[in-house]
Write a structure and sequence with these properties.
Layout lengths: L1 H12 L5 E3 L11 H11 L4 E3 L23 H15 L6 H36 L5 E9 L2 E6 L4 E6 L10 E5 L2
Antiparallel strand pairs: 1-2, 3-4, 3-6, 4-5
Length: 179
Amino acid sequence: MAGEAVATLRGQRGDSLRISTQEATEIPVLPNGLAGMYALRRFMKRGQLKSLPSRHAGIGLDGYTQITSPIRRYQDLIVHQQLRAHILGHHLLTAEEMLKRLGATEAVTSNMRQAERLSNLHWTMVYLSETPKWHGEGVIVETEGSRCTALIPEIGLETHLRCPHSLPSTHPYRLCWKK
């Protein structure tokens, strides 16, 4: 609600603000469960940051901006700063100033996401190596020839495996992780 309200305020005033957008995607009928949710994630287009209002199809809003986590995302901090400046009647960043800041941030964001993924994977593997009797269930959510993708929800692990034979991709298979 906060993201929609701030984007609406921005649109009414014409102020510079980073808007989060996502193009609509035509999604086919998908299987139920984790396999369907995994496929849905792969069909959706990645969100984009823009300085002009545009629809966010993923959440069904004509205007939306991320504003909830200024500690975790620099982009949210910029929106908070713009909102605070608006409330106090101070000078707002121009679209050019804002895009310059966002551009510098975007240059390192993908590296940060990859570092976070690798750190999570590292600590998951540390946990598994220190818990040799751990047993968990996984679900094969995608197959392609002799390769498949499995999710182990209990530990938040997505992994790619070689399957001993080609599996039909029409329903999820269960697998068990044993050390």
